[in-house]
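Subject: Re: docking follow-up (fe (ii) ion)

Dear J.,

Thanks for your patience while I sorted out the input files. As discussed at Tuesday's group meeting, I've set up the holo structure prediction with fe (ii) ion included as the bound ligand rather than trying to dock it afterwards. The sequence and the ligand SMILES I used are pasted below, so you can double-check that they match what you have on your end before we go further.
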Amino acid sequence: MSERKPSPFPILLNNDVCSLIQAAENVYQIRFKNRAANAYLVRGKSRTIMIDVGLSSNFPHLLECLNHVDCPPEKIDMVILSHEHLDHIGAAWHFGGRTIIAAHRLAANKIMLRDDFSMLRKMFNEPDVPINVDIWLEEGNLLDLGNFHLNVMYTPGHTSACISLFDQDQGLLFAADTLMPGGVMGGVFGSGSISDYIQSLERLKGLNSKILLSGHGRLSDTPQDDVRIAIQRSHGLLSDTAQLFDALDARSNFEPIMQSVRDLNKLDDA
Ligand SMILES: [Fe+2]
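The structure tokens for the complex came back this morning:
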């Protein structure tokens, strides 16, 4: 077995709950050791942003990391939410008011409607406080931070509302739960689709990415390998899903759903 090469990314702070890791100049990963997703800080020349913020319960530790690099919340112009899952966005309400919160249109809609099923509220047991999204993003938007130019890519699949951010000059790919190191799959949740997931991964494969900054796990300097493995696995998942649906008696499974729709329509007619 070959020995694992040492990580090229320096650890700046390490405690029981999280590590602060430098991904590139002025780019930091806050990697939580519990169920919270990774948070990222990008300090541009003209604007400073965060991409995801983790769980609300981790906020004191997030603050410790931000203060360590002399970037308290009042210096952060915008928080971008990669999608609606609470392990990524739970702490966002702490930033509300002074910092602009942005998410893809479909994620913003779910968050503003407080769609707990889509946000996985039961899974994460987060405080039930509103998160207000100020800017609704779309594919093709560009975030100009001065020395970073982050392209917003709509990459659905894990959910219907996932975005990735790509800085072409430096090859930085913030891919949240769409692409993870080693090609680990983020899973397909309620509003997601395995077919959409495959198309999103194919789009990420076409980028000249150099560093993968994903929603869970370590930083990766082999995003091209990661995406190839993820595409293979996603095709495996597609055929497993097809077999699963074949094995189920589709008619008996769909009948209760169809009946509830018929009942609902009857109420509307009344
Ligand atoms: Fe997620």
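A couple of observations from a first look. Residues 83, 85, 158, 177, 186 surround fe (ii) ion (CB under 6 Å). DSSP finds eight helices and 13 strands in the chain.

Let me know if you'd like me to rerun anything.

Best regards,
T.
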